[in-house]
Write a structure and sequence with these properties.
The chain has about 325 residues and is α+β, with helices and mostly antiparallel strands. Helix 1 packs across helix 6. The protein is globular and about 60 Å long. It has a five-stranded mixed beta barrel with strand order 8-9-11-18-16. Strands 15-14-12-17 form a four-stranded antiparallel β-sheet, with no helix packed on it. It has two domains: about 220 residues, Zn peptidases (Aminopeptidase, 3-Layer(aba) Sandwich), CATH 3.40.630.10; about 70 residues, RNA polymerase II/Efflux pump adaptor protein, barrel-sandwich hybrid domain (OB fold (Dihydrolipoamide Acetyltransferase, E2P)). Helices cover about 20% and strands about 35% of the residues. The structure holds zinc ion (ZN). Zinc ion binds next to loops.
Length: about 325
């Protein structure tokens, strides 16, 4: 990894030993620039650069809050290198507090590496990808279940056997969770962490919390995850919170309901369930249980689940079931 003296992201220019701020232009509204706030924390000495992006799904704000908690705690005297925080990665979705880009309904985290002259969200992806690969040695993308779903606390990396992928696994094992999703899932082909890894640099996703609710535990988990990765990269002093063993999960099935109503989860998220176990039910507007939703695989880690009593239409994504290795 490069030992960088300084980094520049948009209008933010790092200075040794201090927290600097600025904005990164992601595109344009009809009447002016679309920007995200940028925070850069820099050590007193040169070192690697960790890029942390928050709220790529606009309602998933845990990363931004956790990053602020961590930055307020960091003492830069023994820090080497930089942590770059992108606070509203999908800025228009963040303002709307929704998962997808309001202008085109796109999921920004399926469009990397982006297109410089493509449709709106692909241009945003291009700006983020070029900027991040230009300055950073590794990237983290912080997610939660957003408003309607809940997720457990775990790390996720792209498992293609490359050197960058192996380093990504080491970073995913440094976030403080004992669950790691080693993904080869084709539906994540356009995710930032996958394309970053393909570009030869490690990328990881951290998932935690959701349900439109942020607890101090969620914030502490994610702040610890960013701190753990920064320690594993040698940016912050000390050892990352590595576990003795990890539950490795792979191949995610997205589970959809067919009847509308209210979702009644049958397990806590993060549970490991058998194949065909009933993981949730749908109660219609007249109080009848009209559907039982089962895990298509097993043993399966429930990596996402609709929140209790979430009103759901047919074909809502109510669960992610990932095979346990
Ligand atoms: Zn997300």
């Amino acid at each position: 990894m490069a030992a960088r003296k300084s980094v520049r992201v948009g209008t933010a220019r790092s200075k040794p030993g201090v927290w600097t701020t600025g904005t990164l232009r992601l595109g344009d509204y009809p009447d002016g620039p679309i920007t995200t706030p940028v925070n850069i924390m820099s050590g007193s000495e040169p070192g690697p650069v960790l890029w942390v992006q928050c709220a790529i799904h606009g309602g998933e704000i845990v990363g931004a809050i956790a990053l602020l908690h961590l930055f307020k705690k960091i003492r830069t005297a023994r820090m080497k290198g930089h942590i770059v925080g992108i606070m509203a990665t999908n800025a228009t979705a963040f303002r709307a507090q929704q998962r997808l880009t309001p202008y085109d309904g796109e999921n920004l985290n399926r469009l990397f590496p982006g297109m410089p002259t493509g449709p709106h969200s692909r241009q945003t992806a291009d700006v983020l990808f070029r900027t991040a690969t230009g300055v950073a040695d590794a990237m983290m993308d912080i997610h939660s279940g957003g408003i309607e779903a809940v997720v457990p606390f775990y790390g996720l990396y792209f498992d293609d056997g490359s050197a960058a992928s192996q380093e990504a696994r080491r970073l995913a094992e440094s976030v403080g969770s004992d669950v790691v999703w080693a993904s080869r899932d084709a539906w994540l082909d356009g995710a930032m962490f996958v394309n970053f890894t393909r570009a030869g640099k490690p990328g990881v996703i951290v998932e935690c919390g959701g349900g439109g609710w942020l607890t101090e535990e969620h914030v502490a988990n994610v702040a610890g995850a960013i701190e753990g990765v920064a320690k594993a990269m040698g940016i912050l002093p000390g050892k990352p919170p590595r576990r003795k063993s990890y539950t490795v999960v792979r191949d995610c099935d997205l589970v959809f309901n067919t009847k509308g109503g209210y979702f009644l989860p049958a397990f806590d998220v993060g549970a490991i369930v058998k194949k065909n176990a009933v993981i949730g039910r749908v109660m219609d507007a007249h109080g009848e249980i009209v559907e039982e939703i089962r895990s298509p695989v097993g043993p399966a880690y429930l990596a996402a689940l609709g929140k209790p009593y979430a009103p759901i239409h047919s074909g809502a994504m109510v669960a992610e079931c990932i095979g346990v290795e």
